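Forum: Protein Structure Q&A
Topic: Joint prediction for protein chains with partners

I've read a bunch of threads here and the consensus seems to be that you should model interacting components together rather than docking separate models afterwards. I'd like to see that in practice. Below is the full input, 257 residues plus whatever partners are listed. Could one of the regulars post the assembled result?
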Amino acid sequence: MKMTLKVWRQAGPAARGEFRTYVANDVSEHMSFLEMLDVVNEELLAKGEEPIAFDHDCREGICGTCSMMINGVPHGPKRATTTCQLHMRSFRDGDAITIEPWRAKPFPVIRDLVVDRSAFDRIIASGGFVTAPTGSAQDANAILVPKDASDLAMDAAACIGCGACVAACPNGSAILFTAAKVAHLALLPQGQPERDRRVLAMAHQMDLEEFGGCTLFAECEAACPKEISVENIARMNRDLLRATLRNRGARVEAGGG
Ligand code: SF4
Ligand code: FES
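Posted by a regular:
Agreed with the consensus. Here's the joint model:
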């Protein structure tokens, strides 16, 4: 297959970006989207041009780094699929494909398709610790976890922190990501001692990072490669309300107690 790529090129955070057009020749339908970009980059290098910078690590759909907008959709046209797991058979010979970085104020462009998502790291860090008993291993059934709760917690824990939810949201909200991180601990017995403090601190940090507010478009759920449900947002909002009422007057800071 042969494709025309319109790719966002930006030399650095302060540089002015622009779309540039490249032709990808000899694209196999079995290639992943990133492998197709690898081939384009090899050709650019052979011509002495700068390769297209893009983030990637596992290429197995588990690290969340391969983030880019493909034809205006985070991670491209295939539902529940990261860019690294997207194959070129999802496109047709002769297609024109537009490739851009995430567009959100808290995710500044570092170069080309690479953005700085450390705002997510700071939200996670603000959640702090969980109380975990140390010493010798407990008996297998010492802490019973209802099956429903463990299933929901595992579903929430599937979030890979890719940022597609933010990129898809017209408000640039990080609520689905934050809600997933809050929920996977709030649903388990181990997450209870710090439950209030955690949700207050993570919501506070989310605001400090200047992510937008949630107005329930649910574009985040549609774009999420791990199909994180917006039900987690409702769970987080309930937790946040309860924690706010219970801790009125207390000073709760991001990362603090
Ligand atoms: S909630 Fe989904 S889209 Fe958002 S960061 Fe997690 S995995 Fe990515
Ligand atoms: S490179 Fe790790 S999820 Fe795509």
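The first helix runs from residue 33 to 46.
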